[in-house]
Give the backbone structure.
Amino acid sequence: MEGKLLPPVIFNAITIVSMLYALSQIISDGPRLRSTTTGITMALQEIAHESELVDEAFISSFVADQEQRRGLFNEIIVVMLTAILANVAANFFGRGRQKANTARIRELEEELRGLKGD
């Protein structure tokens, strides 16, 4: 690791921490944002029902938009969790491979020293 600025593990840890932070923000602020959107949509629906100028397509577009936002919100959570788990798995499997490679390098160094010594 000498000569390198930072080991890759630090960058992986920063990635995991930032994804966890983003996920926590989505989970903590998401319901508030969804309830605000739902409230606005319901208020607009009530106004639309009271007004004779608004047709049913206008109301259904609000409902469809609300459903689309809910789906996007859930999709973001799933993607963030998948990215976090993939990064953790990559770190775990990378560590094992690094240990095996380091052991093999040491074996080859020993063989090289033996050849030079003969």
The longest helix spans residues 56-117. The mean pLDDT is 76. The CA atoms of residues 86 and 92 lie 10 Å apart. The chain has one domain: 5-115.
